[in-house]
Write a structure and sequence with these properties.
Helix content is about 20%, strand content about 20%. By secondary structure, the chain is an alpha+beta fold.
Length: about 270
């Protein structure tokens, strides 16, 4: 025993070698695993896109309620026939008279005994027999339907009435008690348009009941067609106030003279 105890510290036991080797291997394995986990990249998680839920509300319609059955109308039966009783009147009973036949004695003979006549039996009245006479219902006569005449074709619609003719324009003056301007004409011209002298133009104007000018016609020319056209256009762009008589508006016609003078400033 003393020899074995002295040899054990010098010569290690093979079991201890295996344990130490296993511990070293486990430590190295943990070191490698920790190093791998430290250098491992964390995977990127992609967000999951979910479509929103679509909810649709559906209105449930109630089934239509069945209509209550209509009561059947039964035809009224015809009234029952009246019963007529016919009673036969029995004949009156016959009266039977008792006749006593008495033999008269021609000669004094012994009186004969009276002969008894038995009364005949009275005839019994005949039994009354009731007979029912049933009246037959009268035959129903069905009237044949008369042919219905076809309806008459509808009358053609009356042609529309022609529109009323517009009232004829009233000849009035401009200004004073006549018609008034709501937008007066403003002709634009220069001395070159007048060709060095004063000009005079008269324009006949026709307007509707609202004062809108419909026609402007030169009745007295200035002698220059271009100048006449300028004045006519200026008149067409103007407007009258509605001309009224007794509260009723009328179309009008009026003449407007224009005195075109030279401008001293050119």
């Amino acid at each position: 025993m003393s020899q074995m105890s002295t040899l054990s510290p010098q010569t290690p036991h093979p079991m201890k070698k295996k344990i130490i080797t296993a511990l070293v291997a486990v430590a190295l394995g943990h070191t490698v695993v920790l190093w791998g986990l430290a250098h491992m990249k964390t995977p990127e998680l992609k967000p999951v896109e979910k479509e929103p839920l679509k909810v649709r509300f559906v209105k449930i319609q109630e089934p239509p309620k069945p209509e209550p059955p209509q009561p059947k109308v039964e035809p009224t039966p015809p009234p029952p026939p009246k019963e007529v009783k016919i009673v036969d009147t029995p004949p009156p009973p016959k009266k039977v008279e008792k006749v006593e036949q008495v033999k008269k004695a021609e000669t004094p003979k012994p009186v004969a005994k009276p002969v008894e006549v038995k009364p005949q039996p009275v005839a019994q009245p005949a039994p009354v027999v009731e007979t029912k006479v049933v009246a037959k219902p009268a035959p129903v006569v069905v009237a044949e339907p008369k042919p219905v005449a076809p309806p008459a074709p509808p009358a053609p619609p009356a042609p529309p009435a022609p529109p009323p003719a517009p009232p004829s324009p009233k000849s009035v003056s401009i200004g004073g008690s006549g018609v008034q301007w709501s937008r007066s004409p403003k002709p634009q011209y220069n001395n070159r348009d007048l060709q060095g002298e004063t000009r005079r133009i008269v324009v006949l104007i026709e307007a509707d009941e609202k004062g809108n000018i419909k026609v402007a016609r030169v009745t007295q020319s200035s002698g220059i067609p271009a100048l006449d056209e300028k004045i006519r256009r200026a008149v067409m762009s103007a407007k009258f106030k509605p001309y009224k008589e007794n509260g009723i508006a009328y179309p009008i016609s009026a003449s407007q003279p224009f005195e075109l003078t030279l401008n001293p400033n050119g």
